[in-house]
Amino acid sequence: MAEIVGSRWSIPQILTALPGLRRLDDGTDLLACRVAGFSPPRAAYIYLYGDDPNVIRFDLEDESADTSEWDNAIRRGQTVSLSELRKAVLSWVNAVPYPSPTVS
User: Fold this and answer.
1) Measured over all CA atoms, what is the biggest interatomic distance in the chain, rounded to whole angstroms?
2) Are 74 and 64 in contact (CB under 8 A)?
3) Are 60 and 71 in contact (CB under 8 A)?
4) For 45, phi and psi rounded to 5 degrees?
5) How far is CA 51 from CA 27, 45, 80, in A?
6) pLDDT at position 69
7) Residue 82 scores a pLDDT above 60
8) How is 20-63 classified by DSSP, letter by letter?
9) Could you report the per-residue pLDDT of 38-81, keeping only the tens digit for each?
């Protein structure tokens, strides 16, 4: 299937829907961005590339995870709703990591 260039969504629209997150990339890509919250190793890569202009795709990434993925993606997903995107991304990047157990 051919990839369609264009989307009914925009990166500024997506960033507005994700309050409190900071953009990590240089901002030059008009169809993708990487954002993070307060849990340092976690980020979300959000992109509008693909064959359906209604879909927002995202990768939930963790730099500290040992994955076989080049981009440290733990989970890949997609949605057609900003509210669903907000729920998935904010819960991922703002998750408080569990403290390591102490050995006595």
Assistant:
1) 58
2) no
3) no
4) -100, 120
5) 23, 18, 13
6) 66
7) yes
8) T-EE-S-S--TTEEEEE-SSTTEEEEEE--BS-TT-EEEEEEET
9) 767 899 999 999 999 999 999 999 887 776 766 778 899 999 99
Find out whether 17 and 56 touch, Cβ atoms under 8 Å. Answer: no
Task: Residue 42: name the closest of 100, 101, 98 by CA.
Answer: 98
Q: What is the mean pLDDT of the chain?
A: 85
Q: Provide the token pair at 83.
A: 């509210």
- Tell me which residue has tokens 């403290």: 99
Query: pTM of the prediction?
Result: 0.82
Amino acid at 80: V
b/e string for 5-36 if b means 16 or more Cβ within 10 A?
A: eebebebeebbebbeebeeeeeeeeeebbbbb
Tokens representing 87?
């729920």
CA–CA gap between residue 56 and residue 49 (Å, rounded): 8
Q: Which two tokens stand for residue 80?
A: 């057609």
